[in-house]
Amino acid sequence: MSLSKRIIKETQRLAEDAVPGISAVPHDDNLRYFDVTIDGPSQSPYEGGVFKAELFLPDDYPMTPPKIRFLTRIYHPNIDRLGRICLDVLKSNWSPALQIRTILLSIQALLGAPNPDDPLANDVAQAWKQDEQAAIQTAREWTEKHAKP
Amino acid sequence: MDSDDDFNSSQMSDEEFMGDQDSDMSLGDDSDYQDDVGFETQDKDIKPTKHSYEVEFKVFNPAEIQSHQDKQVEEVSSILGQEPEATAILLRHLRWNKERLIDRYMEQQNEVLEDAGLGETLHTHPPRIEQVPGFACDICCEDGEDLDTFAMKCEHRFCVDCYKQYLQTKIKDEGEAARIRCPGDACNRIVDSKSLQLLVTGDLKNRYQELLTRTYVDDKENLRWCPAPNCVYAVQCPVKDRDLKKIVPTVHCECGHFFCFGCSQNDHQPAPCALVKKWMKKCEDDSETANWISANTKECPKCASTIEKNGGCNHMTCRKCRNEFCWMCMGVWSEHGTSWYNCNRFEEKSGFEARDAQAKSRQSLERYLHYYNRYANHEQSAKLDKDIYLKTEKKMTQLQNTTGMSWIEVQFMDSASQALQQCRQTLKWTYAFAYYLARNNLTEIFEDNQKDLEMAVENLSEMFEKPIDQLKGLKVEMMDKTAYCNKRRIILLEDTADNLKSGRFFWCFQFMLLDMMLTID
Ligand SMILES: [Zn+2]
Ligand SMILES: [Zn+2]
Ligand SMILES: [Zn+2]
Ligand SMILES: [Zn+2]
Ligand SMILES: [Zn+2]
């Protein structure tokens, strides 16, 4: 069973058939470690921001999901201070048929649709529920401050 | 104990909670189960009499659990007209609630099948491994005409190697069995047991069966695994979660372990599960330690210099201004009598009033420590009981050699040791119990029972320290004291269980919010 074939194919596709607003480039010395960027979706407080993340494919990938963490600070109820992401497809709803690109698209979608009812960052989720407009404003400010190239 | 009384009261209580029983007491209502419970201890057969603190229970081995599962599947299978494999999935899907399954199946058959991942009947399309032209596996990216592939009805097709590895990850690493989903993205179809039969082989098959059996017990409200390490038995007991404020269901596994059916902790009679949880959390709580540390230094109420308490005495004298005061309430010492802090029982004197929040917090800390020290002391002693037991064995051997006593004759040491262990365990929990107990006339009876048991235990415990050569002469005395200990324990537990059952205990609000326990039906 050649999992590396899968990883090679995925990597090739990511390079040749790039998804707009998303990039994932493997390190030369470690083909399981990717530098990722995700553009903030339009119509969201993250619009105009470019968010850096790191992605790692564990040994038993794709039987277990990739590990992903934001490196750029982001104000979002489902992303904590360490950049960890609360997203079902990265946990219980992972399927080995999913790919890096589909996961990154899911994360981009999460930026466009925060879910404060399933929070990872409790304080942010609380703020989001209490005063959504103010929270969105804060998210915008953070994007301006941390995510502008 | 008067055995007639015991019998009557147990009949009453059994009816009380048998009355609550519905058909999910299913392991018990099978008549042939009664027959093959071969390991029902003789003890239980000889004296069916139960004390009011004892509950009905049965112990089952893995083979019995498996055969009962099979029987239920067979039975429901013929009712639904479904194959056993599909029936098993349906039953597990509805957590072995067979009435609910049958009802729902009769009403909305297609929906139930869909929910359980069985959209269409399996026998028209039995699962099989196929080679499909032009196929490429989405998981490993392999392709080729001769690649073995597999898909369920949902047509999420992957190569057999990937499918197998996926199942292995789920079963071995994640411990899943009854509800493994199709590896396809966002597919909710459950991998049925026929497909699993095809794809799960070797050691993994055993692990899978094991996990399935475990799910059965986990899903049944009236079954629980014995928590003892490496124990394979499950215990069945009719006590439900909602009964736990009134009953403390200690059960006794075949492996010898006594545990609480309600919470799986070690036997904690007479304290109810919720109280035990509260108490353990309190004991663990860091803030309590912090309180304790801060409570060791205070300011003199007169000159405000820092005073450290380094002895047990509450009569403090400030080194600087010679002010004599009481550590507890910070009041002037001369106003106090000398016996108010009599340490035997925690006294909350009626004339005594905490003057401020600090004094109140100190008082509640003192109260907690009073009970905690005694609780911890018995816990410590319970650990020493293991040593005592080993020493007992050694002493028994010595007795046989030096006195010519037979093995039967030295059994009294073993019984005494066992009684000590059990009584200390009970005593330990009476202190947690007393901590939360609100004071009324029942409290006094409880404390008297506690005191009587404690004295009986210490008297018996003392005898273990006698030299070996005297032990033979103490046989009768030790047997008497052992019997007395056991009797005191039964009295305490019966009294407490009766009052608990009838909701006559009240709990201190200032120390806890045990509202679920305060609800009296
Ligand atoms: Zn599927
Ligand atoms: Zn494959
Ligand atoms: Zn056991
Ligand atoms: Zn319990
Ligand atoms: Zn005082």
TrEMBL record, chain A:
The keyword Acetylation does not apply. This is E2 ubiquitin-conjugating enzyme. Belongs to the ubiquitin-conjugating enzyme family. Keywords: ATP-binding, Nucleotide-binding, Transferase, Ubl conjugation pathway. PANTHER family: UBIQUITIN-CONJUGATING ENZYME E2. It comes from the Eukaryota. Its EC number is 2.3.2.23. It comes from Pleomassaria siparia CBS 279.74. The active site is at C86 (glycyl thioester intermediate). It is an enzyme of class 2 (transferase).
From TrEMBL, chain B:
Its EC number is 2.3.2.31. Residues 1-46 are annotated as: Disordered. The keyword Nucleotide-binding does not apply. Residues 1-38 have a biased composition (Acidic residues). Keywords: Metal-binding, Repeat, Transferase, Ubl conjugation pathway, Zinc, Zinc-finger. Pfam families: Ariadne, IBR, IBR_1, UBA_ARI1, zf-C3HC4. One of its GO terms (molecular function) is ubiquitin protein ligase activity. One of its GO terms (biological process) is protein ubiquitination. Gene3D superfamilies: 1.20.120.1750, Zinc/RING finger domain, C3HC4 (zinc finger). It is an enzyme of class 2 (transferase). It comes from the Eukaryota. Residues 133-347, 137-185 form the RING-type domain. InterPro entries: Ariadne, ARIH1-like_UBL, E3_UB_ligase_RBR, IBR_dom, TRIAD_supradom, Znf_C3HC4_RING-type, Znf_RING, Znf_RING/FYVE/PHD. It catalyses: [E2 ubiquitin-conjugating enzyme]-S-ubiquitinyl-L-cysteine + [acceptor protein]-L-lysine = [E2 ubiquitin-conjugating enzyme]-L-cysteine + [acceptor protein]-N(6)-ubiquitinyl-L-lysine. This is RBR-type E3 ubiquitin transferase. It comes from Pleomassaria siparia CBS 279.74.
